Amino acid sequence: MVLTTVVWAQVPKGSVLIRNGTVLTITNGTLNNTDVLIIDGIIRGIGKELDAPSSIMEIDATGQYVMPGIIDAHSHIGIDAVNEGTNPITPEVNVGDVLNPTSVSIYRALAGGVTTSHAMHGSANAIGGECETIKHRWGTYDPEIIRMEDAPRTIKFALGENPMRVHGEGKKIKPRTRMGVEQVFRDAFSDAQEYMRDWEDYRNDQVGKAPPRYSGRLETLADILRGEIIVHCHSYRADEILMLMDVLKDFGVDKIVFQHVNEGFKVAPELAKFGAMASVFADWWAYKFEVYYSTAYNAAILTRNGVITSINSDSEELIRHLFHEAGKAQKYGGLSDDEALALITINPAIQLGVGDRIGSIEEGKEGDVAIFNHHPLSIYAVPQKTIIDGKLYFDVESDIDDIRVDVDPEEEIPAFEFFDQHDHDRCMQDVFETLFIKR
Amino acid sequence: MKSLNLLLGSLALLFVVSTSAAQHINKARQGSFALTNATIITVTQDTVTGHVVIEDGRITGVGDVNPPSGIEQMNCEGLFVYPGMIDAGSQLGLEEVGSISLTLDHNELGDLRPQMKALTAVNPNSTHIPVTRVNGITTALVVPSGGRLPGTASLINLVGYTPEQMYAGFDAIVLNFPRTGKTSSGDRRSDEEREKAEKKAMESLNEYWKSLTLYHQIDSLHRAGKGEEPAYNPALEAALGAFRGEQVVLIEVDRDKDIESALEWIKGKNIKVVLTGVSEGWRVADQIASAKIPVITGPVLSMPTRTSDRYDRAYANAGLMLKAGVQVALRTNDSENARNLPYHAGFAATYGMGPEAALRAVTIEPARIFGVADQLGSIEVNKVANLFVSDGDPFETKTQIKHLFISGSYVPLESRQTYLYDEFLDRDSGAKKD
């Protein structure tokens, strides 16, 4: 193991008293006419008519709804590259190396009440790169500021059509089938085990032979086997989901969140038994064959079967209205308000390994809050204020049109950008052009 | 023989029941129905409490009426009756699996091909159709795509076994107006290359229009008995109605400057135009309003068109155009998730349009734009019985649809997605293996 010393940048923290709102705590019910006090970035009080130092900023939330900052367990915003699509196995790369805090998408997510997102590697490779959990601390040029300090390491895996298309069809190398996908994992983990044994032998060896050759790729795989990294696996079909659980079981890996997992509902009891979690779309389907047999009731079925489930965006558009996406789990399957809101707060927090820090309004947790003018599951709800670590980053009342911090001086007006809502596969960014059918 | 029939009948019933979990949609049912004691959101008139009577596919009574005796009654106390929503632009029936080109029927080859008829390729059995209609969407414009003149769009009702049965009485040719400027931040063409391509696109369109003018003249002379029949030219013939102002031209255009160019281009032409897309309509709303051109815009749940634009511009676009005096209808421009039309409308409502206007934008306004307001778009006597019953505001995700009628048929609230729910919610744990 190479030891690295991480020095966290000075993250801005603030203090604020949010007065008299309807507080949707998520983990402790709904509290009417309640104050939330955040001091130096941490929630220090929840109650009626709290006392606070007079110097603290006060927000009057009378008639408004105060909920924990929304968390997106699958996005690709705030990064300058998505796919290292050159090999089926690339755990040596890290999305944390390409953070772009000036991406306007971060601000637009804030304007949708989203305070934290999981900036993920793409799905071109069976074993992709490490991902980064970011907080949407807008207004900085410093990538270190948006990194969520001390968040657990996560890595992207991918099953099915994307790795099959990129490597099997595109490059004529394994995997071209879902059989091949399984063997990519088995090969990689076996290599990592051997690598770990070689290092173990070397360290135990008294005679003093040359050390094994260092490999960034195998180091990361070894860390997965040691349980130090949470696997987030792009997946759709029931069979491939079962396959990966079998592989992980064989190699003793138990931290797994299936991403998209459109057919998770078919194997919900198996997911629950394994302790696997699921992060799904509210209703995306039919954009490719492996999502043709989907149902918008997926989140409800998974929830009812005891699988910890979140609703994610995978889209710079969708991330702006995750509160609305969560509402769809009420239409499709009748989840309660708390169950629906958990899909975008505490559940994704747990999936990112930060459930003890964010995802609910509790004393001692980080001061990430979104304030809405109506109940956030109503279509008429408009996010009013978004707060991270007690610091106000979005306020609908003082919001200005052009919020760019990184302006091209040669560009008079930014280019018109046509939004293609059919472009569902952000996971395939950077490899899309050459390998996907152009519409 | 009778008992054999009975036996076969019950076997058939068994078959229906046992296969329902295997993705089989039950039949829509024709008949006469009375929806009683409902709150009726007529859209064009006041909201009233009372009954809605449906006979022979039409609405025959609304409000304080006595339902004919003997017809099937559905107690709708505490429920709401709304006119079926109309998606004013979609690829429903023309697309099955997005990434598989052989399942896409909206994008024929060629640049100038108005003779391509969307209605021809509508698959009445597309899985997308039941998925859409169970959310209260009863009607959709199905629109071809790609090229300059991709074809003829048609309005369909979302029930039927043939395209003809589904046809709802409106066609229009589509013109994708030439785009200028960079198409995205990733557009790497030089300014020169780009301008050359833009100039060429405009010249090609104008060249086509010149040919069309000539074709119209030859055809008119022939009809007046003064000349020969024009040579077979389907690409021109299909646009004659549009050229003569008899058929609507849907002009797809988004960028502010392109909207201005389109408004300039149509001047002096005797054509009936509807602008579609129009994602930067808010920038030039006054010009659209003074040209008195109706607009179909959407998807509302979309990104701002420029990085310098306020985060909610796409949500607010429809409302801003409406405020400027533009007639606005909404569309999803989607297929598998055209079911989200009420939520696009809901976001438009929230961001400036207001709930009443947003409801009109997915009911009576598209009906008016399509010239079928005497048939569709509101709860009125003599209109086609396209309507749904819900337990609340259809824009809210909590709201459930309770009954659905399309062309007077009582349509089951079923789709493959509901069947998968029914089958897998409490899945049998399966064959025991250990």
In short:
In chain A, 26% of the residues lie in helices and 21% in strands.
Keywords:
heterodimer, A: 439 residues, alpha/beta, 8-stranded mixed beta sheet, 26% helix, globular, disordered C terminus, B: 434 residues, 16 strands, disordered N terminus
What does this structure look like?
- The complex is a heterodimer of chains A (439) and B (434).
- In chain A, the strands form 2 sheets. In chain A, strands 1, 2, 3, 4, 5, 14, 15 and 16 form an 8-stranded mixed sheet that branches. An 8-stranded mixed sheet of chain A has the order 6-7-8-9-10-11-12-13.
- In chain A, strand 7 (114-119) and strand 8 form a beta hairpin.
- Residues 433-439 of chain A have low confidence and may be disordered.
- Chain A is globular, with a radius of gyration of 22 Å.
- In chain A, helix 4 packs across helix 5 (216-225) and helix 4 runs parallel beside helix 6.
- Chain A is 26% helix and 21% strand.
- Chain A is built from 12 helices and 16 strands.
- Chain A has helices spanning 104-110, 143-146, 161-171, 178-204, 216-225, 238-250, 268-274, 298-304, 322-331, 337-342, 346-351, 432-435; strands at 16-24, 30-39, 42-47, 57-60, 65-68, 70-75, 114-119, 127-135, 153-158, 229-235, 256-260, 277-280, 309-311, 369-372, 383-388, 391-395.
- Chain A is an alpha/beta fold and 439 residues long.
- Chain B has 434 residues and is of the alpha/beta class.
- Chain B is built from 14 helices and 16 strands.
- In chain B, the strands form 2 sheets. In chain B, strands 1, 2, 3, 4, 5, 14, 15 and 16 form an 8-stranded mixed sheet that branches.
- In chain B, strand 1 and strand 2 form a beta hairpin.
- In chain B, helix 11 packs across helix 12 (355-361).
- In chain B, 49% of the residues are buried.
- The model of chain B is unreliable at 1-23 (pLDDT under 50).
- Chains A and B meet through helix 1, helix 8 and helix 9 of A and helix 11 and helix 14 of B.
